[in-house]
Specification:
CATH class: Alpha Beta
Strand content: 25-35%
Order of helices and strands: EEHHEEEHEHEEHH
Structural class: alpha+beta
Helix content: 25-40%
Number of helices: 6
Shape: globular
Strand order of the largest sheet: 1-2-3-4-5-6-8-7
CATH architecture: 3-Layer(aba) Sandwich
CATH superfamily: Gcn5-related N-acetyltransferase (GNAT)
Radius of gyration: 20 Å
CATH topology: Aminopeptidase
Oligomer: single chain
Largest sheet: 8 strands, mixed
Number of domains: 1
């Protein structure tokens, strides 16, 4: 066969030497300065979560979740009991350090140890958690476990493409928008086009440094206002990579 007839080499991905499947997330707490993210326990967390959720002025927090709202604590506890023992999704309560009150929920899901991919989702922040340092710290703690403790390569965020607050939150936290999967789901009797976002392990060191700078108490004035925005710190750290 002549040189001209030789088949050309096909492009392939870069090597991932010595790769092995990653551990599944443990059922243990992740402790920060402003909050602890701990495995959901219905008896310890349900009443607090339900009471804090009910302080919302309306039910918009449930619009893009496949479940809820829950009118009574009994109904909410029943739903939690049916899901709290699941390993995927693995539900966590976000507990305020100062008050020891459960103020939000988050989970790991679509956990893929073989490929080192894990998603964060089922986010439900009560008004007491929204726009607080603990809200950001909870996401940092879950990222830190995925990348630093467990060695995952890819961390995902997905939401309804129409959920603009969730899309903006993903971008603020350093996720990269990857595109929209059209007609991905049907929930609550309606279509969902799903927006995909991700962080990969090579991006994590710069993001980790930015989170730690933002969460440092010196970044907040006497009134609790941030001195520097997280987005600015992420941009600054990313240029140093």
């Amino acid at each position: 066969m002549s040189d001209a007839a030789q088949p050309s080499a096909s492009p392939i991905g870069y090597p991932v030497p010595d790769w092995s499947p990653r551990p599944r997330p443990p059922r243990s707490p992740m402790r920060g300065r402003y909050c602890t993210v701990e495995p959901l326990d219905v008896d310890r967390h349900a009443a607090s979560l339900h009471a804090n959720n009910r302080t919302a002025a309306d039910e918009r927090a449930w619009t893009y979740l496949a479940y809820g709202p829950f009118a009574t604590l009994v109904v909410y506890r029943d739903w939690l009991y049916a899901h709290a023992q699941s390993d995927d999704p693995l539900f966590h309560a976000i507990v305020d350090t100062e008050t020891s009150d459960a103020v939000g929920v988050a989970s790991y899901l679509r956990i893929d140890p073989a490929n080192g991919v894990i998603e964060v989702g089922h986010l439900n922040y009560s008004p007491r958690l929204q726009r607080t340092r603990a809200a950001t710290e909870a996401m940092y703690l879950m990222m830190r476990r995925a990348f630093d403790e467990l060695g995952y390569r890819r961390y995902e965020w997905k939401c309804d493409s129409l959920n603009e607050p969730s899309r903006q939150a993903a971008l603020r936290l350093g996720f990269t928008f990857e595109g929209v999967f059209r007609q991905a789901l049907v929930y609550k009797g309606r279509n969902r086009d799903t927006a995909w976002f991700s962080i990969v392990d090579g991006e994590w060191p710069a993001l980790r440094a930015a989170f730690e700078q933002w969460l440092d108490p010196v970044n907040f004035d006497e009134a609790g206002r941030q001195r520097r925005r997280l987005a600015d710190l992420i941009a600054e750290q990313s240029t140093r990579r």
